[in-house]
Amino acid sequence: MNGFMGVDKPSSSPTDLQGIQNGLMAQVLFRQGWGNWAQTSALLFSRDLYSILLSHPSLSGLYDWGEQNIGLSTEWTWNPNPSFTGVLGARYDYNSVASHQFSPRLHLRWAPKEGHTLRVVAGRGFRNALPLTEEWGRFASNRQVRYAHNPIYSGWVWGGTTDSREIAWNAGLSYSWNFEWNYMPGSLQLDAHSTQFGQAVIQDYYTPGQRYLYPQFASGGSTSPLSSNTLGAALTYQVNKRTEMRLAYRFQDLRTMYLDETGFVAQNLILPTPFVPKHRWMAHGSHDFKGGWTVDATLQRYGEQPIPGTDPASYPALEVAPAFNLLSGQIRKEWKGGDVYLGVENALNVMQVNPIDGAVHPVTGAALLPTDPIFQTQFDATRIWGPIFGRMVYLGTNIVL
Q1: HSE-up of residue 197 (Cα within 13 Å, Cβ side)
Q2: Which end of the chain is less enclosed by CB atoms within 10 A, N or C?
Q3: Do 83 and 71 contact (CB within 8 A), yes or no?
Q4: pLDDT, tens only, 234-248
C-alpha cells in the first residue's frame, strides 16, 4: 500500500506511508463422518513478511518483520435429530508474535418447533494488529502521534510484537421466527452479543491535539479494556404479493478503558468508544407495480454518538454529535432488454456543518493554507460523524445484449 497526505513542501510536513505485505499459506484438511457425528480437522502453516516505511512529523521510521504461524484445529458436529445441532471446536496456534494460543468454539442450534430456531455461540479469538496502517485515514490531522514506549522494545506501534496482540472472548444468543400472517410470510429476528477483550490496542483521541496509542490489558483480571455489547431486532413482512416491509433496530454499547495521565481521575477511565451511535433504526418498504415498475424507500436514523472534543483545557475532551436521519429511494422500470432507474441518496439533505477543523479562518471563512498557524495547530479531518455531501440524484440503466 502507498498513501500520501499533505502538500509536498518542507514547510507542510506531509505524511507518507509505504507498506508491503508478502505471504503464503498452506492447509491440509481431514473430514470424516459416521452416524450422528462428523468431524473436520486441519493442519495449517502461514508466513507473512511486512515492511512499513512511515514519514510523519511526530513518528517516522522503517520497520521490517516476519510472522509465522503453525495451527492445528478440530471441529466436531453432533446432529442427533433435525431439531438439534451441536458444534464443538478448538484450535491451537503457535504464532511467532502471539506465542501459544488456544481458541475454543461452541455453537448450538435448537429448533423446538417448526419456524422457531434458537442459537447459542461462544468462543475465543486473537489477532496481531497493525495499529498505524489499520487507522491510516486518521493521519488526516495535525494531531501529534504519541505512543507508549515498551522499555524493552518500542516498535510495537507498527505491529509485530506481543504489545500489538489483541485477544477477546465472545458470546451470543439469537432467536428467529418464521411465521405466516393473513396468508403472507414474515420473519422476526432477535439477537444479543457480547465481546470482551483481554488485551487490545487503544487509539485515544480524547486528548485534544493528540492521537495516543498504547496496549491496554484487563484491569485486575476482570475489567475489559475494550468491550462491545449489542442487541438487535428485525421484522420482515410481505404485506401482499407486491409489497414488502422491513423494520430493524440495533443497540450498541461499545466502551474503551483509557489511560489517564493527568492525575485528575483514576488511572483507568472507561469511556464510550467514539463514532459509534448507541441507537440505530431502519425502515424499508418496496412495492411492485404492474408494467415492470418498482418503488422502494429506506429511512435510517443514527442516534447521538460520542466524538472527540476540541477544548484544550478539558480531559477527557468528549462531545456528543446530534442524531440524524438518512432517506434514500429509487424508482425502477424493467423490461425484457434491461431496466432504467432514478434514485436519490440523502433526500433530506443532511450535512455536518464544518466537518474539517482548522480548514477555514474562524472569522473570515477563507480557506487556509498549510503554512497558516491556525491550520498547523487545529487542522483535523478525523472528527467526521455524519454526511459531508448533501442530496444526490442519480439516473442509470442496465441493458441486456
Answers
A1: 20
A2: C
A3: no
A4: 999 999 999 999 999
